[in-house]
Amino acid sequence: MDALLKSYSELEKRLSQKITPPGPAASPEEQALWRDAMGIPPSANDYQVNAPQGLGIDPEVNDMLHKAGFTQAQAQLVYDLAAERLLPLIGEAAQAYEAERQVERLVTHYGSEERFRRIAKQLTAWGGQHLPKPVFEALSTTFEGVLAMERMMAGTEPSMARDSAPLSAPSEAELRQMMRDPRYWQKREPAFVQKVTEGFRKLVNG
């Protein structure tokens, strides 16, 4: 029994030594051995992180992770959590900011906030009766879309009756994907925005 307890104590001692990070005075070899035992890459540049879509590799972040002793798996988890938790929040904030910019443009275009609100109320009533819900929601999010609806309501654009043509799910999905493109909601590239607007018009009119 004494021999068993002694062996256990020696094993516990060796394990604690492996887990304890080397001190500031440790040699580079000792630090390298500890990193290797813990699964920490030799340098921040050696992290093999699969960056989630919409999130690039940040060398400064990797350097901070390496200094903190993050393993390969832990570094990957940081990026995965950022994509899962932070990117949606950033996207919502960007969309909210862009929506405010669109409203400001419309208020300027119509001359006053009161006139814009009056026209917006008319467009909402008209769009609810004459446009498919997905098309109305898409057009009402942009300056160009609101002006297009106003022209339709005034009869200067082709009618977009609710039942004029069946929606094609793939085409609608593609257009919604285009709306998430930075060229649409951030840069507001006229040609790209017009392409989306025309796409919805053709989608409904067939």
Identify the notable features of this structure and list them briefly:
single chain, 206 residues, mainly alpha, 2 domains
At a glance:
This protein has 206 residues and is mainly α. Helix content is 70%, strand content 0%.
Textual characterization of the structure:
- The protein has two domains: 24-88, no CATH class; 111-205, no CATH class.
- 70% of the residues lie in helices and 0% in strands.
- The chain has helices spanning 2-19, 28-38, 59-67, 72-110, 113-130, 133-139, 143-154, 169-179, 182-185, 190-205.
- α8 packs antiparallel against α10.
- The longest helix is centred in the middle third of the chain and has 39 residues, at 72-110.
- The model is unreliable at 156-170 (pLDDT under 50).
List the helices and strands and how they pair.
Blueprint: H1 2-19, H2 28-38, H3 59-67, H4 72-110, H5 113-130, H6 133-139, H7 143-154, H8 169-179, H9 182-185, H10 190-205
Helix pairs in contact: 4-5, 5-7, 8-10
